[in-house]
Amino acid sequence: MNLDWSLFFMALGLAFLMEGLPYFLLAERMPSVLLTLASRPPRALRVLGLTSMILGVLMVALGRSFL
């Protein structure tokens, strides 16, 4: 299996971009958002994380179907 390094680094860069957007656009609100997340029970955070991962996999599959 060959790893397409350019695709890997583009995906990694896009992940960093998406992670940084809320901190840049909503800098004033992020502390309260993070405190709200910190107050959630672990199960709710796991559901949120699992939902995010499933959405990410679906988006990658959708993107790959257009290639």
Low-pLDDT residue intervals, each spanning 5 or more residues: none
Largest beta sheet, briefly? Answer: none
Average the pLDDT over all residues and give the rounded result: 92
What amount of the residues lies in strands?
under 5%
The ordered H/E elements are: HHH
Total count of strands: 0
Q: What separation lies between the terminal Cα atoms?
A: 19 Å
Output the structural class: mainly alpha
Apparent shape: extended
> Level of helix content?
over 70%
Q: Gyration radius, to the nearest Å?
A: 15 Å
Number of helices: 3
Short characterization:
The chain is mainly α. The protein has three helices and no strands.
Task: Give structural attributes.
mainly alpha; extended
Write the layout of secondary structure elements.
Layout: H1 5-25, H2 30-39, H3 42-65
Description:
This protein has 67 residues and is mainly α. Helices cover 82% and strands 0% of the residues. It has helices at 5-25, 30-39, 42-65.
